[in-house]
Specification:
The chain is of the alpha/beta class. The protein has 15 helices and 16 strands. Helix 2 (about 60-75) packs antiparallel against helix 12 (about 280-295). It binds pyridoxal-5'-phosphate. The site of pyridoxal-5'-phosphate has 14 residues, from helix 5. Pyridoxal-5'-phosphate binds near residues 113, 115, 118 and 213.
């Protein structure tokens, strides 16, 4: 087989469909968020970033940077091994205690990323609970899907956020078998929110464990920033909560928080936890500082929500097709892969604004969009500039001003 020809043909097909991914090379500027330098063809230009998942700009908060610098100076770069073999640091342990406290759970366990936390936990539970069935929301993230697949447990998919459908599926299954119900709180492409408590109640009525991915909510919702389950007063109904240290907390790493036995089980049996080097101590220090800061500053969350509401208002007033969203995520409908890419290119070239196009398979075909993520540091003037730029691009490309989907 001509392997390179095979790879090339596949890439050509992606290009023809307008969904070949081109990465923008950005150089972030600590202290100047949301500004960054865009590198292309040997030139460098300053742009405004409107699609970062560094939702609260904690990735450059002085408290985080100082904690990281100090830990590098004191302890050096790497962790020195897996958590089993010389890699467990006092900072990892402290971070896990902090995360358990944040979520009101007995224990927490840190992984190298949120992806690995989802994949490892679901794989381990699905594989080791005898005859386990996993009930999964139709729009669950790839990391959960991969974990369920690798577990070889039976996977049943319920319609997105559909409590009745979940209930029907659970009622139709063998009540003796262990089961897990897995879903997210905030879905990151539409910005909608799950009926967390209602799904958990149905799951528990049928003897299932409740697994909730709060990746797009930790730091941003609830009085302490523990997520939407905290905001809605249903955190106690969640058996296993999963989060990331890389989005609102601005660093890297993922975690679960749950009962002591659950966490100890995953710690003891989870391949993706056991057989990989632990996060550097400086990362644990930065994440710890970030979680503590975000937890203690609810006004950050108020400002974040206010910024998102302002942007939605401004888009609506300008006749731009903002899609309905209950959260800080503000998708703007395009509905075509090639046009979506073109809109993103024009924003960058003509207006020095960076927004990544969101195409299939991240979202269904025909619902391609630009996904805006206003942060507490996106000011009114920047917002007005964005809205003017979008109007210019919409006019140039003849894009619809109503979301068709
Ligand atoms: C980004 C994301 C993850 C993975 O988290 P990382 O820390 O980036 O690996 C998991 N779940 C959802 C829903 C995500 O969007």
């Amino acid at each position: 087989m001509d392997y390179n020809a095979f790879f090339q043909a596949h890439l050509d097909r992606l290009r023809d469909e307008g969904r070949y991914r081109v990465f923008a090379e950005l150089e972030r500027i600590a202290g100047a968020f949301p500004r960054a330098r865009h590198h292309r063809d040997g030139t460098v230009r300053e742009v405004t970033v409107w699609c970062s998942n560094d939702y609260l700009a904690m990735g450059q908060h002085p408290v985080v940077l100082e904690a990281m610098r100090e830990a590098v100076g004191a302890q050096g770069s790497g962790a020195g091994g897996t958590r089993n073999i010389s890699g467990t640091n006092s900072l990892h342990a402290e971070l896990e205690r902090e995360l358990a406290a944040l979520h009101g759970k007995e224990s927490a366990l840190v992984f190298t990323s949120g992806y690995v936390a989802n994949e490892t936990t679901l794989q381990t539970l699905g594989a080791m609970l005898p005859g386990c069935e996993i009930f999964s929301d139709a729009l669950n993230h790839a990391s959960m899907i991969e974990g369920m697949r690798h577990s070889r447990a039976t996977r049943r998919v319920f319609r997105h956020n559909d409590v009745r459908h979940l209930e029907e599926m659970l009622a139709g299954c063998d009540p003796e078998r262990p089961r897990i119900v897995a879903y997210e709180s905030v879905y990151s492409m539409d910005g909608d929110i799950a009926p967390i408590g209602a799904l958990a109640d149905v799951a528990h009525r049928h003897g299932a464990l409740v697994y909730l991915d709060e990746v797009h909510a930790v730091g941003m919702y609830g009085l302490n920033g523990a997520g939407v389950a905290e905001r809605d007063g249903v955190a106690g109904k969640i058996d296993i909560v999963q989060g990331t240290l890389a989005k609102a907390f601005g660093v890297i790493g993922g975690y679960i928080a749950a009962s002591a036995a659950t966490v100890d089980f995953v710690r003891s049996c989870g391949s993706g936890f056991i057989f990989t080097t632990a996060l550097p101590p400086s990362i644990a220090a930065g994440a710890l500082a970030s979680v503590r800061h975000v937890r203690a500053h609810p006004e950050l969350r108020v400002r974040h929500q206010e910024r998102a509401a302002s942007l939605k208002r401004k888009l609506a007033a300008a006749g731009l097709p903002a899609m309905p969203s209950a959260t800080h995520i503000v998708p703007v409908f395009v509905g075509d892969a090639a046009l979506c890419k073109e809109a993103s290119d024009l924003l960058l070239e003509r207006h020095a604004i960076y927004v990544q196009p969101i195409n299939y398979p991240t979202v269904p075909r025909g619902t391609e969009r630009l996904r805006l993520t206003p942060t507490p540091l996106h000011g009114d003037a920047e917002m007005d500039r964005l809205v003017d730029a979008l109007r210019d691009v919409w006019a140039r490309l003849g894009l619809a001003t109503r979301a068709a989907a």
